């Protein structure tokens, strides 16, 4: 229910700014993104590591959402000529057009969160926080976890990491 409301809100905003593309031929209105990106195809079938695309995870606060500079490493030519979905990304790359992904995560500015700290220093798995992204076949919201304070707290408590307010709120 909550997701539905969220989706409706996103849909409305998307249409208002006029770039809600119906590239997804499944007729599934839940698609928020212009390209039906499949984590399953890339990470499970083709064994591409998360870090290839989310380049900031080990060194920066933000993991980063990849765009055509990253996609073009593989999609500057057609890999499978029968795939309509692949053609969409190919045409973005060919036309040097930025993909207007919708960012789903946005913890507020007053919260300090760093991927580097958790992935590099804390040695956590992506799935500890994001669930199993490798099963995700489209950018729908099935694995989407809105990060609430309690979620951070519970793990910090169970692993003996500080829960001082000032650690996460500067
Ligand atoms: C080939 C590039 C690529 C690889 C490899 C990749 N991702 Fe992504 N990821 C993307 C793109 C593009 C998006 C934005 C579109 C979307 O949401 O699916 C994204 C979005 C995400 C998001 C934001 C949530 C969401 O659904 O939009 C998370 C979390 C994520 N990826 C985690 C991972 C994890 C974990 C791995 C490794 C298991 C991984 N990604 C591997 C390209 C990639
Ligand atoms: C390291 C190589 C690599 C990178 C980087 C990469 N891809 Fe792919 N991508 C592939 C391969 C391999 C396939 C499978 C070929 C096929 O069956 O179409 C694929 C397939 C696809 C498809 C068709 C999937 C389907 O469901 O049929 C889309 C769409 C796509 N990629 C989008 C992207 C986007 C967007 C990016 C950049 C954010 C990206 N890819 C980055 C290798 C890559
Ligand atoms: C300790 C929990 C945690 C772990 C572990 C974690 N993430 Fe995240 N991730 C988050 C939070 C929290 C956000 C939202 C950050 C924000 O809004 O600033 C996020 C956001 C993202 C996003 C959205 C884009 C961005 O830059 O904010 C991607 C992509 C992502 N994570 C990928 C990954 C990948 C890949 C891994 C593993 C290598 C990983 N994450 C490990 C908690 C985690
Ligand atoms: C799955 C477990 C887990 C989750 C969920 C998690 N953390 Fe952490 N966090 C850790 C671990 C482990 C460390 C210690 C990393 C290290 O060794 O430096 C840490 C460290 C930190 C630090 C540095 C603490 C210090 O003492 O300097 C901050 C800040 C932080 N986390 C913020 C967050 C925020 C904000 C969230 C929620 C959005 C979050 N964490 C969610 C496990 C987690
Ligand atoms: C481990 C990280 C972490 C720690 C420690 C932490 N917070 Fe938060 N806090 C968050 C995150 C993430 C959010 C934003 C998500 C949300 O609203 O739940 C947040 C949001 C908040 C908000 C606004 C949310 C609301 O419900 O209005 C307040 C107020 C707040 N924190 C107070 C505190 C106080 C007081 C402490 C110390 C007892 C504390 N926080 C410790 C991560 C943390």
Q: Would you mind describing this structure in some detail?
A:
This protein is mostly helical and about 170 residues long. The chain is built from nine helices and no strands. It has helices at about 1-15, 40-45, 50-55, 70-75, 85-95, 115-120, 125-130, 150-160, 165-170. The longest helix has 15 residues, at about 1-15. The radius of gyration is 18 Å and the shape is elongated. The chain starts with a helix and ends with a helix. Bound molecules: heme C (5 copies). The site of one heme C (HEC) has 21 residues, from helix 6, helix 7, helix 8 and helix 9.
What brief labels describe this structure?
binds heme C, elongated, single chain, 170 residues, mainly alpha
Oligomer: single chain
Helix content: 40-55%
| Shape type | elongated
C-alpha termini separation: 33 Å
The biggest beta sheet reads:
none
Protein structure class = mainly alpha
Number of domains: 1
Bound ligands? heme C
Encode the helix/strand succession as letters. HHHHHHHHH
How many H/I helical runs? Answer: 9
- Regions with pLDDT < 50 over 5+ consecutive residues? 10-31
How big is the Rg?
18 Å
Beta fraction of the residues? under 5%
How many β strands by DSSP? 0
Q: Kindly report the average pLDDT value.
A: 82
């Amino acid at each position: 229910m909550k997701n539905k409301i969220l989706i409706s809100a996103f849909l409305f905003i998307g249409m208002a700014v006029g770039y809600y593309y119906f590239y997804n031929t499944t007729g599934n209105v839940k698609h928020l993104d212009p390209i039906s990106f499949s984590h399953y195809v890339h990470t499970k079938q083709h064994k591409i590591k998360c870090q290839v695309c989310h380049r900031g995870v080990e060194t920066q606060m933000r993991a980063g959402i990849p765009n055509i500079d990253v996609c073009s490493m593989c999609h500057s030519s057609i890999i499978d000529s029968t795939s309509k979905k692949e053609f969409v990304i190919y045409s973005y790359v060919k036309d040097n057009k930025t993909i207007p992904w919708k960012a789903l995560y946005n913890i507020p500015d007053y919260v300090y969160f760093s991927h580097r700290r958790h992935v590099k220093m804390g040695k956590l798995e992506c799935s500890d926080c994001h669930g199993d992204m490798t099963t995700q076949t489209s950018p729908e919201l099935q694995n989407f976890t809105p990060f609430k304070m309690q979620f951070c707290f519970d793990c910090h408590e169970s692993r003996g990491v500080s829960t001082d307010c000032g650690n996460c709120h500067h």
